[in-house]
Amino acid sequence: MCEATPSGGVVAAAPADGGRDGGFRVVVTGKGGVGKTSLTALIARLLARDGHRVLALDADPQMNLPHAIGLPEDRARALVPISQNRDYVQEKTGASSDAGWGLYFRLNPDATDAVERYAVDGPDGVQVMVMGTTVQPAAGCLCPENTLLAGVVEAMNLREREVILMDTQAGVEHFGRALAKGFRHALVVCDPTFNAVQVAVHAARLAADLGIPAVHLIANRVRDAREAERLEARIAAEGGFPFTSMHLLPYDDAVLAAEPSVTPLLADGGSPLLRAVDGILEVLARSEEEVRPCAS
Question: Which residue segment(s) compose the domain that 41 sits in?
């Protein structure tokens, strides 16, 4: 049975017990430019204000999450992505891509100390860590940098009583099965445009294929009921998907005025946008075992 959310979507009914250890893991994905980084930052700040320990991981090549969360400009620009930290890559894998082709390196690096060494404290106590991406795309997936990033994702599974949010690029397949071992929610963000919906449905299927049990659609910048209807029609035209929940976030000029930081948006706790985001938080706070897909 499904119930309505404050954001205008539907979710599978489940007890709000917050998960087994009081924490949960969420990956945020979608087409570039649809607002996923701002949404990740808003969720991180709101959950931290609600008393959660929050770790925000930036795995998008553009690396804008520290700015969106509200780190001062100089601190945000000074952060070095883990994948570009040559000393750490070599320490953990025994090699770096600088060594050229044919190198040997560890395929299961221990990155459990990454947060303690490289995360920084942001507003409201949110911890922020920039993961980055591979520095030599031509090297393919099997390179020290990518192996280390997968190790960092796997290390997240050992952290307890903590909300972990990871902002990614359009796909989630670059982290492989590491995501499926601990990330129980995928927020697939789109806007009502044709290209964004195409990417969203594709990303949702990738997340499901990886074994992420709860895949939620976040439709951003929806101006009116006609756009909402057009969005639903476009999803159906792509073959549909049994999203665990669907949320409509209203268009808000204040987002553009506030960027890159979400801090000004938090000053108006009663805005329609924040009320809609609260609907997402209610879903994420539910037990991951009990969340089940609604009928498509």
Answer: 17-284
